[in-house]
């Protein structure tokens, strides 16, 4: 099992610097968020670029339904 905790510090133009929300889930090796030389998921992009966890949370919920991730009650 792999533990995922995702957060970033934003320095986007026109936005105040801040930490994004912390998003976490335990997941199997079958849950791939991104690969070196590959593309990040839409949820990862939105956290990185906007600090918004909404799409990432939905991606995690989908993986929980598929059985490749486990999440705390905050994902539901």
UniProtKB/TrEMBL annotation:
Question: Which residue stretches, if any, does this entry annotate as coiled coil?
Answer: none
Lineage start: Eukaryota, Metazoa, Chordata, Craniata, Vertebrata
Keyword terms, alphabetized: Signal
Q: Tell me which residues make up the Spondin domain.
A: 1-76
Signal peptide coordinates: 1-16
Q: Which organism is it from?
A: Oncorhynchus mykiss
InterPro entries named among the record's database cross-references: Spondin_N, Spondin_N_sf
Q: Which PROSITE patterns match?
A: SPONDIN
Write the protein's name: Spondin domain-containing protein
């Amino acid at each position: 099992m792999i533990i995922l905790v995702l957060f970033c510090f934003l320095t986007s133009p026109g936005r105040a610097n801040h930490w994004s929300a912390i998003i976490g889930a335990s997941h199997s090796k079958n849950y791939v968020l991104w690969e070196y030389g590959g593309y990040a998921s839409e949820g990862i992009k939105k956290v990185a670029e906007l600090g918004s966890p909404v799409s990432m949370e939905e991606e995690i919920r989908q993986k929980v339904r598929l059985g490749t991730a486990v999440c705390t009650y905050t994902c539901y």
